[in-house]
Structure formats: C-alpha cells, structure tokens
Design goal:
Oligomer: single chain
Number of strands: 0
Structural class: mainly alpha
Strand content: under 5%
Radius of gyration: 16 Å
Largest sheet: none
Helix content: over 70%
Number of helices: 6
Number of domains: 1
CATH superfamily: MazG-like
C-alpha cells in the first residue's frame, strides 16, 4: 500500500510545476497554505459527519478526501507521507499515554 502513497507523492510534486488551469492540485498550490488548511478543515468535518451518520463507503470516501488534502498540505511544507510513516514507526512499542506526555514537555 505504501506504493500508492509514493505514487501519489510523485503526482503531487509534479503538480507543483503545472498551471492551475491544468490541475485541481496545482490550483490549491497557487492559492497557498491558508486555502489548503481550510480544505483540510472542511474535509475533517465531513469525515466526522460520515462517521456519525453515513455508510462505510461514505466514511472511506471522506477519509480518502481528508488524507488527500492533508498530503497536499504536507507537500506545501516539503513533507511527505514518508515523514508521517517514520513518525508512526517511532511510536511502535511506546504507550500512547507516554507518547502524549512526551509532547507536553
């Protein structure tokens, strides 16, 4: 599955050089971090609603939208899914409570 994330990362990088008229992703890059943050906020709210009231198919669709837009936001900061996966890997074997406490110090 990480191959999908790698391919998506390559597409996102490619879209940085395309005209906004050619690509939805390019148009988001042109609009800047504020616009993509608003989009991530919107998509997270849609996922929450789906989790509470909609079918599993809708939940998966909304989760995919949130992941997609989050990856665009990360790309704007020159980060990728690899950075997130490395962080998650570091957390294996660490109590969730302990990990959360470590962020507060």
């Amino acid at each position: 599955m990480s191959e999908i994330l790698k391919k998506l990362g390559e597409v996102l990088e490619d879209r940085k050089t395309k005209a906004s008229s050619e690509s939805y992703v390019s148009s988001l890059y042109d609009k800047g971090i504020g616009e993509i943050c608003d989009k991530v906020d919107e998509e997270s709210k849609e996922l929450i609603i789906a989790l509470k009231t909609e079918s599993n198919d809708r939940i998966v669709s909304e989760a995919a939208d949130l992941w997609f837009h989050s990856l665009i936001a990360l790309s704007m900061k020159n980060l990728s899914s690899d950075d997130i996966l490395l962080e998650l890997e570091k957390r294996f074997g660490v109590s969730g409570h302990d990990e959360k406490k470590s962020r507060n110090t």
